[in-house]
Amino acid sequence: MDWPNDWNKALAYLEENLEGDIDPKELGRLAGCSAYHFQRMFSYLAGVPLGEYIRRRRMTRAAADLQSGEKVLEVALRYGYESPTAFNRAFQAVHKVPPSQAKQAGVKLKAFPCIRFKFVLKGAEEMEYQIVKREAFRIVGFRTPLPMDVEKSFQVVPKFWAEIGPRQAELFPLMGGEPAGILGVSTCDERENYYYIAVASSAPAPEGMHEWTVPAATWAVFTGTGRLPEAMQELQKRIVSEYLPDSGYEWAKAPDIEVYLNRPGEESRFQVWLPVAKR
């Protein structure tokens, strides 16, 4: 199975470039997916956002450099901080002490070792899924720009759902295809990325809405129930950590789709459409 090797190549690249720029596209290329999907998958698998992991690794290295006798300004510049103030703030966020104290005897610092991926398949709970091949289909609905930085997107998407919530009823008359339900669609286009709250439809886009064509692709479709958003997030984590590694598929460079089959509540019904391609 190549997944662990590919992901560990991406992490090796990250370690080699802690003192410079880390290109998310290169991380995705090495891991065999898009930059956006890499960030999402990393947060699910590692339990920490990619950006925070990079900050922790840099501050771990910075603490060792300071304890070896290097000057604060030199270390700050090495890890991309243009001023001692910004470096001081980042250092304290990780170590809870300012960098000037890192050289003192007996000071307590934190070390965050580099991650190495080793997939362990749990298999404790069954996962029902279907492999669905679909031709291109059109969606109509509301959209908002989606940052390629997943940490920022995790803030944008819930806010957008809160804003659009009262207007979801406007989408029901437009429904006219599969997947049926209210859709959450991340276009995952690195040139122009949007998040849609929409429906599959052949109807013209009303004023204030937008249309987009989801390209032909193959999806692994999983169905779940429970309280949102926690149940949806848990299912997505299980798909990435338990299903994908042993499935013979990888995350394809296509949109991923959330399908909400009924109104949110204790027993919300939903689907995750994960774009896949044979390895």
State the gist of this model:
The protein is 36% helix and 22% strand. The chain has 279 residues and is of the alpha+beta class. The termini are close together.
Structural key phrases:
single chain; 279 residues; alpha+beta; 9-stranded antiparallel β-sheet; 9 strands; 22% strand; elongated
Q: What's the topology here?
A:
Elements: H1 3-16, H2 24-31, H3 35-46, H4 50-67, H5 72-78, H6 84-95, E1 129-134, E2 137-145, H7 150-164, E3 182-186, E4 194-200, E5 210-214, E6 217-226, H8 230-243, E7 249-251, E8 256-260, E9 268-278
Antiparallel strand pairs: 1-6, 2-4, 2-5, 3-4, 3-8, 6-9, 7-9, 8-9
Helix content: 25-40%
Which band does the percent of strand residues land in? 15-25%
As residue ranges, the low-confidence spans are none
Largest sheet: 9 strands, antiparallel
- What pattern of helices and strands is seen along the backbone? HHHHHHEEHEEEEHEEE
Total strand count, please?
A: 9
Helical/strand content category: alpha+beta
Q: Which geometry do the CA atoms define? A: elongated
Number of helices: 8
Average of pLDDT: 89
Distance between the termini: 10 Å
Which value, in Å, is the CA radius of gyration? 22 Å
